[in-house]
Every structure is written in structure tokens, then in C-alpha cells.
Amino acid sequence: xxxxxxxxxxxxxxxxxxxxxxxxxxxxxxxxxxxxxxxxxxxxxxxxxxxxxxxxxxxxxxxxxxxxxxxxxxxxxxxxxxxxxxxxxxxxxxxxxxxxxxxxxxxxxxxxxxxxxxxxxxxxxxxxxxxxxxxxxxxxxxxxxxxxxxxxxxxxxxxxxxxxxxx
Length: 167
Fold this sequence. Notes:
By secondary structure, this protein is an alpha+beta fold. It has one domain: 3-Layer(aba) Sandwich (Aminopeptidase). The protein contains 4 helices and 9 strands; from the N terminus they run βααβββαβαββββ. It has helices at residues 13-27, 41-56, 103-114, 130-138, and strands spanning 3-7, 61-67, 72-82, 87-94, 120-126, 142-146, 151-153, 156-158, 160-166. Strands 1-2-3-4-5-9-6 form a 7-stranded mixed beta sheet, with helices on both faces. The two termini are 28 Å apart.
């Protein structure tokens, strides 16, 4: 499957809301819930506008991952952009029906290639999220530490693995 990444736009609001709702249970198996309010369309619209403002201010860049038919198959984001030090944090998620197809790894590669002004990218994933660890490592991210803090999610005690990528 061919994919491309596209910066988040105002017109993506409805389609993205549907994508998030359809994949909610799947995403919440690996990342903490965004809360019940997030899945109210009025709240989602407000949050969408906030993301677009962050993007305009270059504090973050939000991308949609799309297949060759233009359907949203995932998201990938650079957040907490520090323009002075050319660094940011990355986050991504791929919809349930698209998992295991290398989409996350390809999207991350596209993002790294398109954001050449960012020289250092930080990432973290949970100790049980092997797929995410593979996506990061396949793209040259190196694990730097495992957090000391333990948290419970879905009945499991987990920690975060922190990664870094430097050009």
C-alpha cells in the first residue's frame, strides 16, 4: 500500500473524528485514553482548532497518513518543537485495519525526510508496544532509557522507553 503524509487542515475535521472514533478501542489498548469528552464532536472540533493554531504557530506539526485512495490510515505528529535547538517529539498512531503493514515505519521515514530543519527527535513508547519500538528502531531511533515510573494501563504495569533520533 502506498502512503503519503499531509499536514492537518480545517477540512479534515469530520473525517478525522470518524477515524478516531472507529479506532478508539484499538488505540486505547496501547496508549492512555483521551477521555470520553474527546469523542463528543463539539469537543473534538474545539481540539481540532487548537491543533491548527499550534501548527500555525510552529509549536507542532500534525500530519495525516493517507493511503493511495486518500483515506486516513493514521496520524503522525511533531510536537513541542524547539526551533532554537532544532528538536521535537514525535507521536504516531495507525488504524487497526492498517497495522502490521509497515505504514508507521514508512510514515516516520517520510516525516524525517520532509522536516529537515529538525535535527533531533525524541520519542517514547510503552514497554509492551513492540510494534512501536520496531517502527522507531527501523528509522534509526536509539533507546536511551527506560523510565523509573511505573503506571497501570489496561491491567498491566508499564514503563516508558525513551528514544532519540539525531541527524
